[in-house]
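Box S1 | Example of a co-folding query
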Amino acid sequence: MDPIIRIKNLTYTYPDGSRPALDGVSLDIMPGTFTAVLGSNGSGKSTLAKHMNAILLPSGGKVLVDGMDTIDEGNLLAIRRRVGMVFQNPDNQIVANVVEDDVAFAPENLGVEPAEIRRRVDAALEQVGMYQFRLHAPHLLSGGQKQRVAIAGVLAMDPEVLVLDEPTAMLDPRGRREVLRTVEELCRERGITVVLITHHMDEAARADRVLVMDAGRVALDGAPREIFPRADALRALRLTVPDTTALLLRLRAAGMPVPAGALTPEDCAAAIWEALR
Ligand SMILES: Nc1ncnc2c1ncn2[C@@H]1O[C@H](COP(=O)(O)OP(=O)(O)O)[C@@H](O)[C@H]1O
Ligand SMILES: [Mg+2]
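Box S1 (continued) | Returned holo structure for adenosine-5'-diphosphate
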C-alpha cells in the first residue's frame, strides 16, 4: 500500500522567521491509520499540519498527498478535497446560521449538485451524531457540538484524511470526549486517515502511532506503548505521560512487576490486578 501522505526532508521557514519552523521532517502516513502529533509549543506541529493540505508550501523537500506534489498548483483542489482540516477554535469555523447550511458550505463551493449535497450533509451529520441538531443555530451549541459540526463540514467534502489541530483545546472534558469518540469512529469504522495534534496524552494514547515534534524535527516516532513508557525522554521534550503510564511507572519503581505499556484505564487496571493476584 502507498502512503496517503508522504513527507520527504521537509523544511519550512516563515517569511519573517530567522530559524526554520520545520527542519528536515520525513514521514509517511498510511491510509486508514490514526496518528497523534505531540510536542511543546512552537515545536512545529501546526506548521507541519498546514503542509498536509497545501495551506503552506515547502521551502525545501517535498510533500506528496496521494502521490500529488503540493507545490504543483494544478493539484491544489484535488489535495484540498482529500485532506480536510479542523482547527482549535470552533467559533472561527462556523460560516452559516443553521447547522445544515454550515455543513453544506464546502461542497456547495466545490460545485457538488444539490441532491448529492443533501445526501452528504445528512450522512456527515449522522456520522458525528449531530443530525438531530441540523436545523439549530450553530452559535448556540456547546463547544464539543460545534467541533462536531466543523468535522461534519469537512466530511461533507468526502475526504480521505482528516487533520485536526488541537480540536479539543478549548473544550470541557465532556466536549473533548465527544470529539475524540467521533474522530476514533471515523478512523476505525469509516477508514478515514486521522492526524490529530493534541496536548492531551490520554488522547494520543488511543492512536496507532505517536509523533513527537521538537524544534521543527521529529524527535520520537512509534506506537503509544513504545513511546509513553519513555517518561524521561518525554520529560526532556517538556511533555508528560498519560495518567495510566505514570501510575504503572511508579508501581514499577516500587518493585511491582507491571508492564509499563498498558495504556487504557482498562488495560492498566487489568495489569495491576494480574500483578496483585
Ligand atoms: N505565522 C508565523 N510567522 C512567523 N513565525 C511563525 C508563524 N507561525 C509559527 N511561527 C513559528 O514557527 C515555529 C513553529 O510554530 P508552530 O508550527 O505554530 O508550532 P506548534 O503548533 O507546535 O505550537 C515557532 O517558532 C513559531 O514561533
Ligand atoms: Mg499549533
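The longest helix spans residues 173-190. The chain has eleven helices and ten strands.
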